[in-house]
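chain below, 394 aa
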Amino acid sequence: MVWGVPVLPVREQVARECVNIAYGFFSPLEGFMGSADVDSVVRSMTLANGYVWSIPLVLDVSPMTLAYMNIEAGGSVLLTYQNQPLAVMDVEEIFTYDKQFLARQVYGTTDVEHPGVTRTYALEDQFIAGPITLVNPPVINPPFDRFWRTPRQLRQSFADLGWERAVAHQSRNVPHSGHEWLMKGAWLAAQAEGVLVSAVVGEKKPGDYIDEAIVLAHHRLREGGFFLEDVHQTSILLWDMRYAGPREAVFHALVRKNLGCTHHMFGRDHAGVGSYYDTYAAHEIFKQLPDLGIQPVLTLEWWYCPVCAGVAYEGLCGHRDNKQDLSGTFIRSIIQGGTEPAPLTLRPEVLEVVRECAESYGFGSPFVTEQYLENRTPVMSMHDMNCTCTNGNH
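prediction:
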């Protein structure tokens, strides 16, 4: 016991979700979901009160831990991270839920090759629900501290810049010119005053871009003048991708609405993985939903066209047979030095910052390695509150 309540250490994903709940990124949620909300989200993509919500957010605990820690409904529990207090939860309910049914509904599959399904099956067998109160706000470490803004802070910055219309760009990649024109096209389509790059910072696996390169490369587009300073901002979202395709697209829209965005761009394969979803499944789902308070900007593919001598849009370019896809494999070969970039394919300024990040943060590589996972500076750290709390991995 610490502070007179049971202590429950939480894993990194749950710690990030606690922070997001506390700061309003996941509004209207005030804590981890109870059974009624989980079941409603899984079955009908709404909370029990009817508010559209597409991804269940749960705190899983093993029956053994519940018994050992004496965690009961009606009591409170101290959630700890990095062996320090993080948040207090008022436990309103302890429940179980069919994880296979959840996976089928949310991901459209029960195939364990899908990373979201794997994540779901790895959950413990019971869930605790209730509101949380952050008691030890984390420190966001460099270089991410420059880009960490709460929803309230982002809304204020939009007001200061005079942004009445802001379009969000979800990113977990270093930006190539197709991404750049995706943002510019969405800015024009939304008749917006600004573009918010909301870079996803969360769980990484070998081969992903390192987080530092993603964030700083996007910021370099602004520094390099490819966007005016009062038209473009880069921020971070602490989130572990579920790769839930269309459902995650809806989730992304709701979160960016909380940040103050009025529009959200969605291109091909948004939040998809493998061949589990149709190319434009994220476009179709918004046709089935009521007004979410944020407008989707639905865009087709951007590619490099040697005939047009520049980046071209699928809806305009008539040289489909000549197109050169701005594929992840191609861009990676440029970054690794195996291919000379075609004109306007990858900005030299972006390539420069990616290579700088490889040396400064990636132990020589701009892509995640085991060394990076073991030795990187954590994105967030806890203040030392002189608490010696039992470690665990719930």
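The chain has two domains: 7-137, 144-375. The CA atoms of residues 60 and 127 lie 4 Å apart.
thats it, cya
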